[in-house]
Specification:
This protein is of the alpha/beta class. The chain contains eleven helices and 17 strands.
């Protein structure tokens, strides 16, 4: 292509400091080095994890930075040695890599990768340099993907090639939100047919958990949120009951235990608050109940737990990107989307031009959106 090997000037939303609105800037995006891929983004979702970053609550984040991690685009050029994608391929950049070589990637029961941001900082690319500059300053990457830019550069093992028929403005959600929630139910909890479930938090991820519980055949799916505006969407996606903790004088875990007799079989927390995690843990039954932690706590948070909640047999599990071996699974999930096995489009409440990125975050903070998708 005409741009291959050259620096590209394009728009990006730069966070110069925590707590400030994003600034639309012209940035320079360097060509990919060996083992890297440069992608022309077509669409990106706004996820609460990006809000964590903007508020300075994401671990090890550095400013200035280009946020965004739920995108889809087309390969513009590739670096030396890249074989899995070629220019023109439709792809989803992966905010959780799959290097295919570490002990976790080689373990069929694990979807973790030792190159993930939990183990290795992803503010710079693996060679510890950035591909972004703006106004003469180096700009950090976010989770290696930085989808709030018209072009981005990512390691090859953080890119998945997808079906060329996929609508990029819709399947971008599979890069994080939908896959995370849907997989938490199917892969991490392994929800059984006829079981009862409770989901705390009805954002894009929590509603995707609802969809996963329904797909797994759960007979009762109780959606919990203080924002009742989200109840209609939850019921459309499969919730059988919707409750707000504000409507009860007693703790919500007691309400759920009374509703189900002994507590739910599976509970999920998709908000990222310590108190709701404890409530979700306590709301699943004390013998075989499984609680899956999906929400992301602010950096440095600690949780105090009464150990008897676990002593009797409850399980507390964590979930990263829904338990999918993500580079292997994203192409299959996109195929399932195209086969209409699920309808993640129902999560998209707003579609905005990229320049309105701050408006998208205002909708998120006000609880007025489930997923806003930005179009470049």
């Amino acid at each position: 292509m005409a741009t291959s090997g050259k620096v590209i000037r394009c728009r990006a939303a730069v966070a110069w400091a925590a707590g400030h609105p994003l600034s639309i800037e012209e940035v320079e995006v360097a060509p990919p080095k060996a083992g890297e891929v440069r992608i022309k983004l077509v669409a990106t979702g706004i996820c609460r994890t990006d809000e964590h970053l903007l508020q300075g609550c994401f671990p090890k984040a550095e400013f200035p930075v280009i946020p965004g991690h739920e995108g889809a685009g087309i390969v513009e050029s590739i670096g030396e040695g890249v074989t899995s994608v070629k220019p023109g391929d439709k792809v989803i950049p992966l905010c959780h890599p799959q290097c295919g070589e570490c002990s976790f990637c080689l373990n069929p029961e694990s979807n973790f990768c030792q190159k993930s941001h939990f183990s290795e900082q992803q503010n710079l690319l693996p060679d510890k340099t950035t591909r972004f500059t703006c106004k003469g300053k180096q700009i950090h990457h976010f989770l290696w993907v930085s989808t709030f830019a018209e072009y981005t550069v990512v390691p090859e093992y953080a890119v998945a090639k997808i079906d060329p028929a996929a609508p990029l403005d819709k399947v971008c959600l599979l890069g994080c939100g939908f896959s995370t929630g849907y997989g938490a139910a199917l892969n991490n909890a392994k929800v059984k047919p006829g079981s009862t479930c409770a989901i705390f938090g009805l954002g894009g991820v929590g509603l995707s958990v609802v969809m996963g519980c329904k797909a797994a055949g759960a007979s009762r799916i109780i959606a919990v949120d203080i924002n009742k505006d989200k109840f209609a969407k939850a019921k459309e996606l499969g919730a059988t009951d919707c409750i707000s903790p504000h409507d009860y004088k007693k703790p919500i875990q007691e309400v759920l235990t009374e509703m189900t007799g002994q507590g739910v079989d599976y509970s999920f927390e998709a908000i990222g608050y310590a108190e709701t995690m404890i409530a979700a843990l306590a709301s699943c039954n004390m013998s075989t109940g499984v609680f899956v932690m999906v929400g992301e706590l602010d950096s440095g948070s600690k949780i105090s737990v009464d150990p008897t909640l676990l002593l009797t047999g409850r399980t507390w599990k964590g979930s990263v990107l829904g338990g999918w071996k993500i580079r292997d699974s994203i192409p299959k999930l996109v195929s399932s989307y195209l086969e209409k096995k699920f309808n993640s489009d129902l999560l998209i409440t707003h579609t905005l031009p990229f320049a309105k990125v701050n408006e998208g975050f205002e909708l998120l903070r006000a609880g007025k959106s489930i997923r806003s998708v930005l179009l470049f």
